[in-house]
Structures are given as structure tokens and as C-alpha cells.
Design goal:
The chain has one domain: Alpha-Beta Barrel (TIM Barrel), CATH 3.20.20. The protein contains 17 helices and eight strands. The chain has an eight-stranded parallel β-sheet with strand order 1-2-3-4-5-6-7-8. The chain binds hypoxanthine and zinc ion.
Length: about 350
């Protein structure tokens, strides 16, 4: 793709308009405070916050755990299939407005089954929103079931069993929640089983945890993508491997800023990851908590780091390459990306 020069003041518009895929979004992290309060009222759930403003004030995080405590509390208002649908539909409409044309969406069933919500309720509500996004918004969307790594391997196996009747409604499994102290190898057997079952495999690694967790996610879990992965910069041999094997990283700049993984957005390493030839992508992680959806992540990160149109194109192209859609669909999306750049006046 031959890129024509784009004046810097027009870059935000290009970033907003270009078609892109989102590959790292926790659907429970898209629950806006207004919807938390509306669902709390609808379901008669008491919240330890007096108002939307009071809840928003609590969103001052110092690390991953300080966020997770509030994120799990927010999810406590989700009880009915319609609640899961409403949450996912709100996200998908928001994503479509940002020119997200394909989304692979994480969900945390254990956060809900532990409160007595049936697996069927969770998956059916989310899946119905994905199907409606396809017909009404022209957005393709699929689901990835995440195991909570602070819980046991046995609980992950039980969760997989509960989800198998709905196996046609999710495409893969992932690993999230508290990273440090819960290395990938804790879940090697459950990931091996998921691999036999034909699921796509991903895992959070190298968000706060060391490069060693990225190595073991690759070698022991055999994941196809690394979620976050920004700590790989500390390990030259790992960087070479990620580039050589074209293992994508689903990077989340505003998340990293809000959870103090980097002191400023200007200090974020996504430009260095691209320069090293890694298949890095931009994603929102938990947009309701971290101050931005996809286009906020793109626009703010580019403004802070000085990246330009060439990196914008590369990041959007990487998002399609890194997705779990077939080769023909990837080609169609990259053609649309090329058209968006060619038509940009
Ligand atoms: N890291 C780990 N677990 C998570 C995250 C995250 O960024 N968001 C939601 N669960
Ligand atoms: Zn995440």
C-alpha cells in the first residue's frame, strides 16, 4: 500500500474513520456506570455507591488488582439474559460508531456462575447481541471465554464443562484476572483440553507479569495471541521470536496508562513494538473503566507518541491479520482498509 502524505492535523480523522478490528475487550469492562445503576435498579441489587458520580470517583486505579476489585463489583448487577444482551449491544453500537468492523469479545463466566447465574444465561444473552450486530450493524462479532487465573485449575475445568453445551457460540478461550503469582502453567492441562476441542487459544501475559509468563503462555499453553505483552520489550530473544513467528500482541494503551503500567501515554512502547516488526494491535480492554473506546485509544496514543499514518495503517492491518476470521474475510477487510486510505482527501 502506497500511503500518500497525510497532514498531522487530519490524522485523528483518519484514525477514527479507518476500519479496524477489536481483539481485546472484556465485555464486563464495557459496563458504563449509568448502565450499572440502571441494571441495579431493574434487578433490585444494592450497590455500595450512592450515585453514578460516586462510582466514577472510585475509578482511580494504582495497578491491575485495584481495578479488578471494582470491575467484579460492577458485574454484580448482571443477572438475566437481557442484562447480558443489553451490555453487549451497548458495546457493539459504540464499537460500530468507531468503525470497528469485527470484534472478538472476552467474557468472564466465573464472575457470574459464582453468583448463581447459569452459563446458559450469560452465553445466550451475549451471543444474541453478536448475532444482531451482524444483521443490524454490519459488524462481525464472536466470543472468547476467559478463565479467571486467580481461581483453580479445577474450577477452570468445571467452567469448561458447563460451557461445552454452547460450544458453537464461542470461538476460543483466554486467561485473565490477577496475573502476578498466577503463571500460565497453572492452566496447561485445561488449555491442552481446549486445544483438543478445537478452540482458539489466547492468554493475558506480560501486562504486569514478567516476560517469562509470555514464554510459558506460548510454550505450555500454545496460545496463538498474547493479550497485552508489553513487557516483552525487556527480553530481546522473546521480541525476536514474536516477530519471527508473527504472534500478535493485543495492546491496550489507555488501560496500561490507567493501571500505571506506563507513567504516561508518551512513554508507551507500542511504537517500539511496531518498529521491531511485531504484529501489535490497539484495543480498549475495559473501555468504561479506562476512559475510552477504540478511537479514543487510537487518537490519544497517536497524539502522545507522535506515530503517523504509516503506523495507523499497520495497526489496522495487523488487527485483521491477528483476528480469527478466515483468509478470504481478512482480505476483504484489508481491501476496505486500503479503500479508506485511498479515498481519504
Ligand atoms: N488484565 C487482566 N484481567 C482483566 C483485565 C486486564 O486488563 N481486564 C479485565 N480483566
Ligand atoms: Zn484484558
Amino acid at each position: 500500500m502506497n500511503l500518500k502524505p497525510i497532514p498531522p492535523e487530519r490524522l485523528p480523522e483518519l484514525l477514527r474513520r479507518m476500519p479496524k478490528a477489536e481483539l481485546h475487550i472484556h465485555i464486563e469492562g464495557s459496563l458504563e456506570p449509568e448502565l450499572i445503576f440502571a441494571l441495579a435498579q431493574r434487578n433490585g441489587v444494592a450497590l455500595p455507591y450512592a450515585s453514578v458520580q460516586d462510582l466514577r470517583r472510585a475509578y482511580a486505579f494504582t495497578n491491575l488488582q485495584s481495578f479488578l476489585d471494582i470491575y467484579y463489583a460492577g458485574a454484580s448487577v448482571l443477572l438475566k439474559e437481557q442484562d447480558f444482551f443489553d451490555m453487549a449491544w451497548a458495546y457493539l453500537q459504540r464499537a460500530a460508531a468507531d468503525h470497528v468492523v469485527h470484534a472478538e469479545i472476552f467474557f468472564d463466566p466465573q464472575t457470574h456462575t459464582a453468583r448463581g447465574v447459569a452459563m446458559e444465561t450469560v452465553i445466550k444473552g451475549l451471543h444474541r447481541a453478536c448475532a444482531q450486530a451482524h444483521t443490524e450493524l454490519g459488524v462481525s462479532a464472536s466470543l472468547i471465554l476467559c478463565f479467571l487465573r486467580h481461581l483453580s485449575e479445577q474450577e477452570a475445568f468445571e467452567t469448561l464443562e458447563q460451557a461445552l453445551p454452547y460450544r458453537d457460540q464461542f470461538i476460543g478461550v483466554g486467561l485473565d484476572s490477577s496475573e502476578v503469582g498466577h503463571p500460565p502453567e497453572k492452566f496447561a492441562r485445561v488449555f491442552a483440553r481446549c486445544r483438543e476441542l478445537g478452540f482458539h487459544l489466547v492468554a493475558h501475559a506480560g501486562e504486569e507479569g514478567p516476560p517469562a509468563y509470555i514464554w510459558t503462555a506460548l510454550d505450555l499453553l500454545k496460545v496463538e495471541r498474547i493479550d497485552h505483552g508489553v513487557q516483552s520489550i525487556k527480553d530481546a530473544a522473546l521480541m525476536q521470536r514474536l516477530a519471527r513467528e508473527r504472534i500478535p500482541l493485543t495492546v491496550c494503551p489507555l488501560s496500561n496508562l490507567k493501571l500505571c503500567v506506563f507513567p504516561t501515554l508518551a512513554a508507551h512502547n507500542i511504537g517500539q513494538l511496531l518498529d521491531a516488526g511485531l504484529v501489535a494491535t490497539v484495543n480498549s480492554d475495559d473501555p468504561a473503566y479506562f476512559g475510552g473506546y477504540m478511537n479514543d485509544n487510537f487518537v490519544q496514543t497517536f497524539a502522545a507518541t507522535g506515530m503517523a499514518a504509516a503506523q495507523a495503517y499497520q495497526l489496522a492491518k495487523n488487527s485483521f491479520e491477528a483476528s480469527f476470521i478466515d483468509a478470504a474475510a481478512k482480505r476483504r477487510y484489508v481491501d476496505r482498509l486500503d479503500a479508506a486510505f485511498a479515498e481519504f482527501e
